[in-house]
Amino acid sequence: MSSEIRIFGARQNTLKNLNVRIKTGELLVITGVSGSGKSSLAFDTLYAEGQRRYVETFSPYARQFLDRMDKPQVDRIEGILPAIAIDQVNPVRNSRSTVGTMTELNDYIKLLYARLGELYCRQCAHPVRRDNADSIAKQIRKLAADQDDPRLVLTFAVKVPANFTQQEIETLLHQQGYTRLHHEETQTVTVTSSPKKGKSSKAAPTEQKLLYVIQDRFRASTVEPERFMEAIEAALRHGQGKLTVYASASADGPETAWRFSQGLHCAQCDIEYSTPVASTFSFNSPLGACESCRGFGRVMGIDYGLVVPDPSKSLLEGAIRPWQTASYKECQVEMERYAPAAGVRLAVPWKDLSQEERDWVIKGTPDWKGGNQAWKTQWYGAQRFFDWLESRAYKMHVRVLLSKYRSYNTCPACAGSRLKPEASLWRVGDQAAPADSRYPRFMPVHSNWLREQLDAMPGLSVPDLMRLPIEHVRTFFRGLHFGDARDAAIDLLLKETLSRLDYLCDVGLSYLSLDRQSRTLSGGEVQRINLTTALGTSLVNTLFVLDEPSIGLHPRDMHRIIEVMHRLRGNGNTLVVVEHDPQVMVAADRILDMGPGPGERGGQILFDGSPQALRGAETLTGRYLSGELSIESPRPMPVAENTPRLLLEDVSAHNLRHISVSIPLGRLVCITGVSGSGKSTLIQDVLYPAILKQQGKPTEAPGPYGALLGAEQIAEVVMVDQTPIGKTARSNPASYVGAFDPIRKLFAQAPLSKERSYTPGTFSFNSGDGRCPTCGGTGFEHIEMQFLSDVYLRCPDCDGKRFRPEVLEVRIEHFGRSASIDEVLDMTVHQAMEFFEGLRDVQTGLAPLADVGLDYLKLGQPVPTLSGGEAQRLKLAAYLAQASRTRLSQVKVAKKGNLFLFDEPTTGLHFDDIARLMRAFRKLLAAGHSLLIIEHNLDLIRAADWIIDLGPEGGEHGGQLLGTGTPTDIMALEQSHTGHALNEYEQAILGKGSALFQEPEVDYKASSGGSNDGQIAILNAREHNLKNISVHIPHNTFTVVTGVSGSGKSTLAFDILFNEGQRRYLESLNAYARAIVQPAGQPDVDAIYGIPPTVAIEQRTSRGGRKSTVATMTEIHHFLRLLYVKLATQYCPDCHVPVAPQTAEQIAAQLLRDHKGEHIGLLAPLVTARKGYYTDLAKWAQGKGYTHLRVDGEFIPVNPWPRLDRYSEHTLELPVADLIIDPRHELQLRQAIREALELGHGSFSVLAPLTPSGAMSLEQRRQGQPLPTASQQHFSVKRACPCCGTSFPEPDPRMFSYNSKHGWCKDCFGTGLKLTGFDQEQTGEENSWNNGYEGEAVECPSCHGQRLNPVSLAFEWRDQSIAKLAGLPVDEAQDFFGSLNMSGREADIARDILNEIRSRLDFMHEVGLGYLALDRAAPTLSGGEAQRIRLAAQLGSNLQGVCYVLDEPTIGLHPRDNQILLNAMARLEGNGNTLVVVEHDEDTIRRAQHIIDMGPGAGKRGGEVIAQGTLAEIEANPNSLTGRYLREPLKHPMQARRPVQADAPMLTVHDASLHNLNKVQAGIPLGKLSLVTGVSGSGKSTFARDVLLDNLQRVVGSKEKPVWQGCSSISGWESLDRVLEVDQTPIGKTPRSCPATYIGFWDEVRKLFANTNDARLRGWSASRFSFNTGDGRCPLCEGQGMRTLEMSFLPDVKVPCDACHGQRFNPETLAVTWRDVSAGQLLQMDVDEAVEYFAAHPKILRPLQLMQSVGLGYLTLGQPSPTLSGGEAQRVKLVSELVKARLDEGLTRTGRAYKAPHTLYVLDEPSVGLSMADVEKLIVVLHRLVDAGHTVLVIEHNLDLIAEADWIVDLGPEGGSGGGRLVVQGTPDQVQANHASHTGMALAEFLKEHGACMADLKTD
């Protein structure tokens, strides 16, 4: 990794062209006054670039959901690391996110409970355990001994199936030797038939007979142990895991039953429990979440506190509020009628009624009969009244009524635990924790436990843990010891959990509980949780950018944050921190001080060096640090005895311990205390709402408190918190503080304004007619760049002045200076105050801005461009301005002051800004207001008049009032942390800064987390087939993972390394984005340390659909589209003249000319092709007096508005007017046009004729229906062709996309081909259009293969259409874009776009793809080309410190191209990245620095690391198969080559000329093994598949005369009987398809199962064992073994089905076994095992042996087809062909010789993904095919295979247009001798090492 990140020419926001170098692995602090550009550098430049470049490596689908950061304004950044921002923005707003989920603690806890939980029965509260035969035997002996050895009868129950009689079952039992029944029982079972859609399911009770069969009888004392155990085991087996023992003292005495069960089943209470999985304990999983509240823990319900708001009223006085209205008065009447009979007192206040009486009122008569009659004759109660209202909630007024009485209640179904009730029965821990009154134990909802029982139970349940504060959770986990159950995995779980709990306690969050919702956390808390998450994920090589981590932290806790940052740095990360706190500055390795001033006056780096050196520096920060400047407390106002006070008594909310505070009014009061001590609770949750409530204003309910006194002394209470302020570009400081209104009034007074009757509204740029119409008063033309950062250009019409030129002519004069409105907006606050000197209104407005130190801002600066600290102070200024308008001093009458509550107002402020803030505070106090401030900043605390200190600690150790008084009083308090901090601070300042915050000396190195010494460590991986392996991968090197297919290479590289690296990075992104891109869950591995962010470059089986081209895959097309939208000139497709906008006058003239006398309608477009319901739009139209809207071509009334389909695109138009064109009504027409243009933003359309022409009046015409034939014509003041008048829509990037209906050619829908049956619904990605497409693909006649519609093609830039540019090959495009010269606006707009295009073209060239045309369709690319395109994209991202995981990148590469690829990979590594490559290729393995060899076998026999180390170490390792092949490679040829005589029968292709083939004439000898070779792109696939195969498939076996395509003819094919292609397309789309069903031997297996006794006993046929249909499959997942959980807006997640655990069948079916294996287990068996298992069944054995012989021995029989790789799918197809071919049976049994059909097999790169050992097996299979008399043609790059060929056809010499010619054809010896052939040269090299001596073969 290079040691620094280099930034060149940063100009983002106010930065002044900075060049910065940031050392990696350091802690850098950036400080400086607020607004000086700190965040611009740290966040907008560094973070934006690091995050953007890493996110660009995701799939385009995922990227659209991530906040793509804008591209910063910077020349270039080199060596950037993937970046993570830890700031205070809490992105999560939903209640699903809690502290537990944010910190991932919930994930660990659910795993722990699933593994180690103890279940307690909900009925009897006894532990429920699984019994086995031994434990049952023990219990029986114990019970028998207690009851003096009774007679025992062991029985098991057998159900009688519905399709059998009891007789038949008994007969079957007899056959098995069971002759005695103990007794029979009949149970009534309610079977719910599976509901068909639309019908409700009727449950029919059915009788179910149970036969209790006697297994054995004995006395426990005398029975011999073998017989005893055997009896128990047999009974459990037949009784499906349950048995009953009947014990009696004598033969006919009474019996007692003892029940036992093997499952999780409480045998005493007969309750079954299901086995828990981790998701059982997760409320974010559909499996665990409570069904009624969906895991939110609360539900909406009727709140009877709102129904009876005043409990002192009686029922007669109207206690029940909803019944006092006219509409529901009858309920009150009826209640009064029924009450006396029920003995309910009507005249007694509600609060004095008994519980029964209240229940009667609410729940109704206890003996409610139901039905319609009951409503008329009985009292229904309030509850039923509300239920009845609910049923009418489709009416608006009912919903409004209900909402008044609704509130969130704890969900009754789960009691707020968020989980299904059963989850709370599981407990972990062995000692009963002492009962704690503050945190009572959670009582499971449906349990019958007593409180005493619950308290005596050991351990805690999940809901208990969730409610405890984190420090208690930590104590609980520390006390856990699991005895025997403890293993390495559990140790790791505990270690990870404890380390995260420790981190949380370290950063001072020990007071939070795990179920605290994350949306209720403060900014500082969120940031600290994110920090611990970052620590927990133990990422390395990552750039963390932090935004003031000290916020919300008491000085005492500051070192904790610093320690965490040092730990992150110690792990190998780089930290950039924006900070003002001196303690953090001291801890930095390096400080950048920015300035010198804020805003435009900043943006430079004043100081760069160590914290020590900063003290001596002359910068502002330096002067404050050295004590030269300090923050003075101006004019303290002492608090005297008689100072008026506000008293808040006995507050007990949250953790406050019944404290009473008195707050002096008219003073500056600070509330201090460590985090979590209760400050916010006191102020925000109690005081603020309490005062509001007393003043009768709407508010949340305040927390519990005793009394509030003295609130009448304040006028109002104002809360100034940290919420962000308005975000529109039109909002600016002057209007925000209200200073702009008096300025506008001054302008309206000017003489010129009066003359033109301008009002103050004319001078508003937010509305009105004075603002510039083009930019709407913003002054900017905002050019949206879909994928790049938006460009803001000055508005061309008003030149950024925001107003119309006429308005700017108004000038005001003052003291001899004059200014127009735009000049005023351009003044800074300071200049404006001088200009408007003496004008009190303006001055009072502007003064607060100066007071808070914002006098450098321009009046018109848009608010969104302010920094965080500036926005914070602007808000304060607005409050100051408000206060100063109601100045107390000006009024003689005593007026009350306001109480201002501030929450950490110093956030984001530098020392100097705090000094200014203090002055502003004093102004407020002088005006008679009171200030109450929650604050940690010591400067502000020192300057306070009075301090209220809470503490001593956070959480439950806080909440006490430590003391109140002046700062000096607090400093004297012993236990006050605030006091200590103040003391230290005073000494530091008095000591002139020498000892300023010396950090406590901690050796951070020692305490750093998981060691990572330059390597990725993966410990104990058990994912898939890995056998608990541990692997170390060195950083910044090239590592190859190799081994036989299926040995677990990809599991290690992708499922663990890639998923984990990407997941940990994503953890840090916002939760919404995370959910979209959520990679698979955590892999099953104990720990991974030192993992950098990862990027995968995989071999996708699909290369992209019909609408995907090289340009879209490389994203070059996206940028071209932007270029064309912004810069191209539009031409009319018909007249070929440039299109220019029309004026309203021209439109009117045209209508009068063309539609004279016709009835026309004018429509204004409101919405064009966007999705949504648009109800609000209809309301707006109705309010404006329009009755209809035209939706998708139909007129629809706005009331009632229909429910539109939200997911399809709609076009909505507003009918503005309809009129008959007549010169007499020209004025009316012009008026209508003006209105339509205004509503349609410059465009509208005309429907003409609306009604048939005739002499009717307009009124008569309006009665009729509009003509369906009316044509719609578009007009626009923007775009229309001057010749033919056709108007065109505004250009939009979608117009140039052939994936969008706005751009594609209407005939081919963007494919460029005429595909039969292809329509706009398809994406072109579907298999049926790619590999599975049968028909002809001819160029589309309308667009000639250019894919776009005529309008889009008519845009020209540099005299070329976009299709023309996209048709260039990469190399030519590179020349074109390299030689462009641009200037002015064009250069501004195109700057980013061109950089992107050029860099992408360069990398394409670099990976050797210069020959590809940009519009080459993706399906025509080879797999190797597709992967290299992806690799090129990665080279472009220029990241460092990333781990790239590549999946067999050499696939489809010729040995020559392999070198190009290896060089490109070396470049990635040279940038400072780690490369992990899964590969079998020898060249690649030899280039690697570190090799991991997996094996020894595949599937279950793999998953171990055989060897790891350098090449020499691998070769020397005797166990390594790879090492053996590297030492002693295969000798070729393995068998003598079959000679090809000159007159041998040949299959000859004449003049092949498809794609790039250049009249190729080549022959394939029949009955031989032939190979087609050549470099990538030379035309091999075209020749073998598109010409030879396609033609022969049509011709062979057909009777018609052959028609040849792509060549003149093919000769010699007559002797072929069939033609087969074995390609790499997937073999099945659903998880139900698997090798067993595809090859077809599963049917045989089903028959075996159907013939077992158990199956016949139950009357099942073979179809019962099908998982595709029928009753046997698991009903939940329908036999897929997986369930797809659809989460709205998220990608679907596939989870193993929780009913059958991936076994695909239901439990009854699985109970049937054949040779002790159930059907489900059989599907999980791999081929190698199955071969032994089915040794006696030839029909099943043959296909299995064939699978072994092509190297698929590791696949399981039930492996879902979609998970097979392309190579595996190809070999499965090969097997299914071989099974049909019957290679080993030359003669049929009929006795006469029979010729097997002569088949031509065409294979496309069958060696893909095969290890060297498997290649050998493949060669043998191919030879077997040829020896059986078939012809085999293989397209291949693998030299092992090429060396085995009998005949080679070599195409080339280069790729693309440089290829397509026949270089040489002949035997391998002839090819080697040809020096023009790349293949020949490579083969000659290869055979030097690997050639066998011919003599050896002759002697065989």
How would you describe this structure to a colleague?
This protein has 1900 residues and is an alpha/beta fold. It is built from 67 helices and 67 strands. The chain has a six-stranded mixed β-sheet, sandwiched between helices. Helix 41 packs across helix 43 and helix 49 packs parallel to helix 50. It is globular and about 110 Å long. The two termini are 56 Å apart. The C terminus is likely disordered.
**Residue runs with pLDDT of under 50 for 5 or more positions:** 192-201, 888-893, 992-1011, 1687-1692, 1784-1793, 1894-1900
The number of helices is 67
Biggest sheet, strands in spatial order? 5-19-20-3-21-22
Strand content range: 15-25%
Alpha-carbon Rg, integer: 41 Å
E-strand count: 67
Helical amount among residues, as a percent range? 25-40%
